[in-house]
Design brief:
This protein has a single domain (32-315), classed as Rossmann fold, CATH 3.40.50. The chain has helices at 4-15, 56-63, 78-85, 104-121, 133-143, 177-185, 199-204, 206-211, 245-248, 260-277, 287-293; strands spanning 33-37, 39-40, 52-55, 68-72, 91-93, 128-131, 149-158, 161-162, 189-196, 212-219, 224-231, 236-239, 301-302, 311-315. The chain is globular. The protein is an alpha/beta fold. It is an enzyme of class 3 (hydrolase). Pfam families: Peptidase_C26. Keywords: Hydrolase, Secreted, Signal.
């Protein structure tokens, strides 16, 4: 028979819309800290300071759902990354434009990906979220190949076409039904990518098919590509679209959407991922050590309303 404490935890988790997990033994960490991976600066960025950056919209995105953020800088040693992995409760791989096999972003991603696989296999819960380039990076890490193909999706908002697998998705089951309807019927997912994982290439690759469940697809009118997916056995999630842009980026161009439903979609994706991070029991060795790593030690740089990222954090 369940104890009253367990019953209370289950009810509390359901009430707060936080998925209950056997892996976490119902112990939730209500002070989650999520790492966001930096990447090499955009070529020609006149605001660049140092060698790498993180768009501030990703930081705000996670903070809006109740997490704190630690920047994961590139060009660090494996030992530093291992130490940081055991201190944070999840990893977000952001969008951008770097080489998915040769960049420092790619190198760091692989280190954390491998650590996360090993940890989760040992019942040490650690979630990963990939957005746009992060989605693409996860496919490269899982398949050991770059299977991306060019699509006409550089600046366009699209509805999602949900697959039958979406009905049993860990991610989507937390979304209100009216929001799922909006996502499937309205042009509210922002796409800013030239490369995509085609449904054809996914289907032909055994490693990807065994690892990921496809939750939604899209088309550029010529090619079908995967837009949302989650791993079967691991708490890994990926979207080819940009949920963080609707509430936090303001460049005036096609593909940018600021409707109420798009903002709700942003919050529910962030809320879900933060709830996954709450299942991780990793922590820093001390409050002082934690304070030293937090994003609050850095100041974002305003790049102007005509910039693709309104604000960036820069790192040496």
């Amino acid at each position: 028979m369940c104890s009253s404490a367990v019953v209370f935890a289950v009810l509390a988790a359901l009430y707060c819309n936080v998925p209950v997990s056997v892996e976490s033994n119902l112990r939730l960490n209500y002070r989650p800290i999520i790492g966001i991976l930096a990447q090499e600066n955009i070529l020609g960025d006149p605001h660049a300071q140092g060698s790498s950056y993180i768009a501030a919209s990703y930081v705000k995105y996670l903070e809006s759902a109740g997490a704190r953020v630690v920047p994961i800088r590139i060009n660090r040693t494996n030992e530093e990354y291992v130490k940081l992995f055991h201190s944070i409760n999840g990893l977000l791989l952001p969008g951008g434009d770097v080489d998915l096999q040769k960049s420092q972003y790619s190198r760091s991603s692989k280190i954390f990906y491998d650590l996360a696989i090993k940890a989760n296999d040992a019942s040490d819960y650690f979630p990963i979220w990939g957005t746009c380039q992060g989605f693409q990076q996860l496919t490269v890490l899982t398949s050991s190949k770059n299977l991306l193909t060019l699509t006409d999706t550089k600046a366009v908002a699209l509805p999602l076409t949900f697959t039958p697998a979406a009905q049993n998705s860990r991610l989507l089951k937390t979304f209100p039904k009216d929001l799922l309807q909006s996502l499937s019927a309205e042009n509210i997912t922002s796409n800013f990518h030239s490369w995509s994982l085609s449904l054809q290439n996914f289907t032909r690759n055994v490693k990807l098919k065994r690892f990921y469940k496809v939750l939604s697809i899209n088309t550029d009118s010529k090619k079908e590509f995967i837009s949302t997916m989650e791993a079967y056995r691991y708490p890994f999630y990926a979207v080819q679209w940009h949920p963080e842009k609707s509430p936090f980026e303001w460049i005036d161009k096609p593909g940018m959407v600021h409707t109420l439903s798009s903002i709700r979609a942003s919050f529910h994706t962030a809320s879900f991922f933060v709830s996954e991070a709450m299942k991780s029991q990793h922590s820093f060795s001390s409050p002082r050590e934690e304070e030293k790593y937090l994003i609050y030690n850095y100041s974002p740089v305003f790049r102007g309303l005509s910039s693709v990222f309104v604000q960036n954090y820069y790192f040496d």
